[in-house]
Design a protein that fits this description.
Two copies of one chain form a homodimer. In chain A, 37% of the residues lie in helices and 19% in strands. Chain A has seven helices and eleven strands. In chain A, the strands form three sheets. Chain A has a four-stranded antiparallel β-sheet with strand order 1-8-3-6. In chain A, strands 2-7-4-5 form a four-stranded antiparallel β-sheet. Chain A is globular. At the A-B interface, helix 2 and helix 3 of A face helix 2 and helix 3 of B. The structure holds a DNA duplex.
DNA sequence: ACACGGCCATGATGCAGATCAAGAAGCGGT
DNA sequence: ACCGCTTCTTGATCTGCATCATGGCCGTGT
């Protein structure tokens, strides 16, 4: 008899893991787009000393859960993570997807408890950055303090873009916008912007975009028919960037 | 011949105003819920020294405009402000309403330019807080630094709630949720939570909630008919708090 | 190899809210 | 007190996406 995937590990606290090893941001190829971006050579070691890494999360494992005490923010090293929040009637609202080099968990600061949950979409390596250490460090490192403010500000503007997308754009526009966003974020990591594998299910995409699975399927089919996309299950190829941008319309 | 209201003052830069007077947060009755909340007696003067106040904004005057250089965040002293962002096809997306004691403008930090615009919904007094000064100050005042992080984090969770509202809730639920939110924020300022005047138009409400004016009108009428609300133009009275909460369903 | 469960695609139908239309009510300006 | 404009309300109709339903596919465990 098999376990239902959703039930795999309702809690996998990162810090309880035994074998932590020295973090080396310097050799991390993400350092240019991740937290260290704001930090000069000499100061980097101080940051490395507070960052914790541990064994990778497996697909569907929880990184943190809404309501639990807030201690760290997290940087994705590899894999992909979804952020979501549970409505009072038990449904899920996906609030974001996080790729390597991106930071999540900052919504927990205001209440000292996580306002959302985060779950690995595939096997993912995560760096945990204890926030009180980070706070102390940033008081003496203006560039780090500024970078943190900027990161949070960025999260705000991203959320505002999603709000706009949800309230003003059609299903086609929403899907096109998401695909372009993923493509751009891939480009930032020097990956292909025209061919990639979606780490999330159609359900997650629909949930994130305020649409049903069926609608996502139909939009993909339609876009495939018009030749702007090649869709093979989770494998996406953007055949006509121009047309896709057109389809996204003027969402951003 | 009369001017169209929308065209009133496309830019009213706060800092160009001549008569600035000493800010006194100490005697401000909002200090308990505003920025000074995090600051002890001795340190407060330093904060007061950097905060600028100037002559009130009139209805429909701009506080800041998307794309313009970011310099300050703003605290509402009196009146009400709407935050919005213009889509590429020229339409407006209202991203939030700000009442006395609330802070706005933090979305400008990430790019050093405002990502959204803000406009007074009625005559409003605003405190401008130059962000570079605030940054410097917060490096030496841990409680202020923390409070700023919390403020931004709060903005993120608020945006996530709106995202959820937009993508999961019906028109009735959205309107009920907004009314309850306003009621709660009134209560925080020791104003009536059951009777108040909406500072914003139906258009703004609809825009914020991802609905049309007509739908807002109909929802108000419906709620009036069932007796949970009394609506007289912008004057709102919540007659059945219980029922309204029910109608908001489990949005939060 | 096969069976089961989760995931995806596609068709048929329904409905909440958009759009279109028209009038009423509030309000600043003269 | 009146005019012109904007805002609000209410009704009639339309539509994009949800919902319901069904079958195919694909990966995983036995």
């Amino acid at each position: 008899m098999s376990m239902r995937l959703q039930d795999v590990s309702e809690a996998a606290p990162l810090r309880s893991c035994t074998h932590e090893y020295k973090v080396n941001c310097e050799t991390c190829r993400l350092s240019r787009i991740c937290l260290p971006l704001a930090i000069n050579h000499q100061d980097l070691e101080q940051l490395e000393n507070i960052i914790q890494r541990s064994k990778p999360l497996q697909r569907n494992e929880l990184l943190y859960h809404e309501g639990t005490p807030f201690q760290s923010i997290y940087a994705v090293r590899s894999g992909a993570v979804k952020g979501y929040r549970t409505t009072s009637d038990g449904r899920e609202q996906v609030t974001g997807f996080y790729f390597p080099g991106e930071i999540l968990g900052m919504d927990g600061i205001s209440n000292n408890s996580h306002a959302s949950s985060a779950r690995a979409l595939e096997t993912s390596a995560i760096c945990a950055i204890p926030f009180d250490s980070l706070e102390r460090l940033s008081a003496s490192m203006p560039s780090l303090q500024r970078h943190l403010f900027q990161l949070m500000s960025r999260e705000i503007t991203d959320d505002q873009l999603l709000i706009t997308l949800l309230s003003k754009n059609s299903a086609d526009e929403r899907v096109a916008t998401l695909l372009l966003s993923i493509a751009n974020r891939n480009a930032r990591r020097n990956l292909s912007a025209s061919q990639f594998r979606l780490p999330m299910s159609r359900v997650d995409i629909g949930n994130y975009l305020g649409l049903t699975v069926e609608t996502i399927s139909r939009v993909f089919s339609r876009m495939q028919k018009t030749g702007m996309l090649r869709v093979d299950n989770k494998e996406i190829e953007i055949l006509d960037q121009e047309a896709l941008q057109q389809a996204a319309n003027l969402a951003a």
